[in-house]
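From the methods appendix. Each design record in this collection lists the discretized structure first, followed by the designed amino acid sequence. Records were kept in a plain field format so they could be parsed without special tools. The example shown here is representative of the layout used throughout.

RECORD:
C-ALPHA CELLS (152 positions):
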C-alpha cells in the first residue's frame, strides 16, 4: 500500500468515525406516520367528494387536490420542513411528486421564467415522466395487440 492509498484509507476512516449515527427505527416511524397522515388527508378528500360526485370524478379530483396541496406547500416552504421530518414518508405519496416538480422551479425562479422555472421545473421529475410515459405507451401497445390477436 503506497502513501496515497494509506492516507485515503485514513481519511475515509476519520470521516466514518465523525459521521453522526442514524436512528433507523425513528426514521421509519416518522416516515410511516407522515405518509399515513398524507394518505388520511387524501382519503378525507375522497370521502367528502364522494358525497357530491360520481366515483370516477372523485378519484380524479382527489388526485388533483393532493397534487395542488403538495405544490402549494412546497411553494410556501412548508413541504420541505415536512420532508426533513418525515423523509420518504413525504416523498412516496403523490404530493411528493408535486414537490419534485415545484421545488426546482422555486429554486431557479431568480434566473427567469424561461431559463429558470421553465427549464429546471422537470429537473428531478423529468426522467420519471419520460420513463413512465414510455412504459405506459409500450404496455398500451402490448395490450392493444393482445386484444386484437388473442388466439396467437
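DESIGN:
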Amino acid at each position: 500500500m503506497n502513501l496515497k492509498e494509506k492516507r485515503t484509507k485514513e481519511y475515509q476512516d476519520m470521516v466514518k468515525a465523525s459521521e453522526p449515527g442514524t436512528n433507523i427505527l425513528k426514521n421509519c416511524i416518522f416516515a410511516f406516520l407522515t405518509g399515513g397522515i398524507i394518505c388520511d388527508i387524501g382519503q378525507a378528500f375522497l370521502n367528502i367528494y364522494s358525497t357530491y360526485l360520481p366515483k370516477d370524478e372523485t378519484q380524479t379530483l382527489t388526485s388533483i387536490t393532493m397534487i395542488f396541496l403538495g405544490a402549494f406547500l412546497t411553494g410556501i416552504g412548508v413541504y420541505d420542513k415536512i420532508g426533513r421530518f418525515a423523509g420518504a414518508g413525504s416523498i412516496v405519496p403523490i404530493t411528493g411528486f408535486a414537490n419534485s416538480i415545484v421545488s426546482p422551479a422555486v429554486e431557479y425562479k431568480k434566473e427567469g421564467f424561461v431559463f429558470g422555472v421553465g427549464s429546471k421545473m422537470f429537473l428531478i421529475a423529468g426522467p420519471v415522466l419520460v420513463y413512465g410515459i414510455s412504459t405506459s405507451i409500450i404496455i398500451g401497445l402490448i395490450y392493444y395487440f393482445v386484444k386484437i390477436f388473442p388466439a396467437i
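APPENDIX NOTE: The two ends are 63 Å apart (CA to CA).
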